[in-house]
Amino acid sequence: MIQNLNDTPLLPRCSLASLDFTNLYPNIPAIEIRTILTDILKHELVTPQEQEILKLYDVITRQNYFAHNKDIVIQYDGLTMGTPPSGLIVEIFLQHIEHTHLAHLTHKHKILNYCRYVDGILLIFDSTQTSIQMIPDYSNAIHPKLQFTAAAERDHTLNYLDISIHRTPTNIKTAIHRKPTFTDTIILSTSNHPILHKYAAVRFLFNRLDSYNPQQQEYQHELNIIHNVLHNNAFPIKPHKHPPITQQDQQHPEQPSKSGPASPI
Questions:
Q1: CA dist., res. 121 & res. 158, Å (int)
Q2: Domain limits, the chain
Q3: What is the dihedral sign for C-alpha 124, 125, 131, 135?
Q4: Reduced to 3 states, what is the DSSP secondary structure of residue 265?
Q5: Whole-angstrom Cα distance, residue 156 to residue 133?
Q6: In b/e form, how buried is each residue of 215-254, taking b as 16+ CB within 10 angstroms?
Q7: Which residues, other chains included, contact 173 with Cβ-Cβ below 8 Å and sequence gap of 6+?
Q8: How many CB atoms lie within 10 A of CB 149?
Q9: Which residues pair with 20 in a beta bridge?
Q10: What is d(CA 31, CA 13) in angstroms, rounded to the nearest whole number?
Q11: Which residue from 75, 99, 155, 243 has the least number of CB within 10 angstroms?
Q12: Can you name the CATH fold of 2-24+90-176?
């Protein structure tokens, strides 16, 4: 996604915004999705396989219950958060909505770039042709079960997931974003946990630092934060250099550089 943002041509009139779904999982129309899934399977699979998948879907959506105040509550529509199939079913529905409405949305509101991760949507649009208030108004009319809330950039900066996106007159700069509730607490190095569990968070922090490929100043700032996290949780601190950007990385940014240094962990 970061590479997609970097490839988006920007003009001074471009703006950033994000859209979030309101209560997505409880409002997912499970019955309607079965019809959508049936239409998809008719074009992809033979009849026996289609029926087997639909039977599995019925079993999953009918066992749609959860515990609340010592009571067992059954949902007749919507999906329960936390169950493994729910994310896949939500993705089927959202991709169907995008397939049927995204082209008209981008054309009508002059959206230059559209990115979505699960239930978070990032938009780059022409602010002279539309406004952040008009986009959710259109989006809320797409389906009666879907409602959106919008957030606009402030001082040319928008926080989306764990990315801080800063818009310049000609391009986009990204850095790692942390919410105000962030704490530097991870599993202590001296705790009696399996070593793979203790180092999982450390690997994540360094892998995110290298894969997001921030500018040198932001890279050093994030590296200092990681070192503080390691120090406060009794981990050893080892040198870590910014992996060099090679010509192969520019052509295939999703592949890690083979010439970069090994992980410090």
A1: 12
A2: 2-24+90-176, 27-86, 179-265
A3: negative
A4: coil
A5: 17
A6: eeebbeebbebbeebbeebebeeeebebbeeeeebeeebe
A7: 165, 166, 214, 215, 218
A8: 11
A9: 120, 149
A10: 42
A11: 155
A12: Alpha-Beta Plaits (3.30.70)
Distance CA 173, CA 113 (A): 15
- Taking only the tens place, the pLDDT of each residue in 71-109 is 888 877 888 887 888 999 999 999 999 999 999 988 888
Q: List all residues 6 or more positions away from 193 whose beta carbon is below 8 Å from its beta carbon.
A: 187
What residue type is 246 in one-letter code? T
Helix (H) or strand (E) holding 125: strand 120-126
**How many C-beta atoms lie closer than 10 Å to residue 165's C-beta?**
22
The encoded tokens of residue 112 equal 């230059």
Pairwise CA distance, residues 176 & 12, whole Å: 24
When pLDDT is cut at 50, 70 and 90, the band that residue 137 belongs to is confident
CA atoms within 13 A on the CB side of 250: 4
Sequence-ordered list of residues with C-beta below 8 angstroms from that of 217, at least 6 positions apart, any chain:
none
Would you say the pTM of this structure is higher than 0.90? Answer: no
